[in-house]
Amino acid sequence: MKKIIMTVIALAALFSFSCSKSNDVIKMGTNAAFPPFEYTLGTEVVGFDVTVSQLISRDYGKKLKVVDMNFDGLIAALQSGSIDFIAAGMTATEERRKNVDFSEPYYLSKQTIIVKASDKTVASVNDLKGKVVGVQAGTTGELFATEEIEGLNVKSFKTGIDAALALKNGAIEAIIIDELPAQEIVRRNVELKLVDDDFYTDEYAIAVKKGNTELLNSINKTIEKIKADGTYQKLIDAYMPLDGDVKIVSIEDL
Length: 254
Ligand code: ARG
Description:
alpha/beta, 5-stranded mixed β-sheet, 38% helix, 24% strand, binds arginine
């Protein structure tokens, strides 16, 4: 009897091992609250980064699994091996480079300020002094707000969308967040507006675990290829259309 039980346990262990370490799957970690790069549509995570990740996975010969989590947990998840790469509109900062390896940059963005449409006090980042400013936890917006400008009362939220709610109901006075998600928030909320000021640029890149050069080289090749063959531009046109009418792209159609 004991022998049978041991065999069953051994088989179960083997089975779960082979499932979780399935060799034909590659896991991309993201935080799907950042349109148009990643957001949810029903139960599915979609967006520019998701399509790019599908192309990366196809070139790498594996099936993509998208893992949605808090933005400030992504680097730890990569280091622990629970995800293989991060595609999350993540800025390649020097600080993060200590813990991860970044691909070639794939998108140039900047930080933007959102205030209430009725606000007449904020025309530039310097006008935020003394104000309560919302940011997404773990982002470059948070870093900038806490380290680069003095005298802000910074409040961190799980997502930019949560910060937008707080701004609407008066709990905070402004938000610092990346340009395209900011535009999306303002498009959906007429009572909010953007402040036109250039104060911080972000270069988005894909992160892999330090030393995973095999995957990194493959990712860089895909990025280089899609930029050269027009695919990248198609994705920009689909996910960042000037008329705001976003189209979800299937990689079979590219
Ligand atoms: N670019 C900013 C950063 O790297 C914000 C990225 C937030 N991304 C997300 N998927 N929520 O910190």
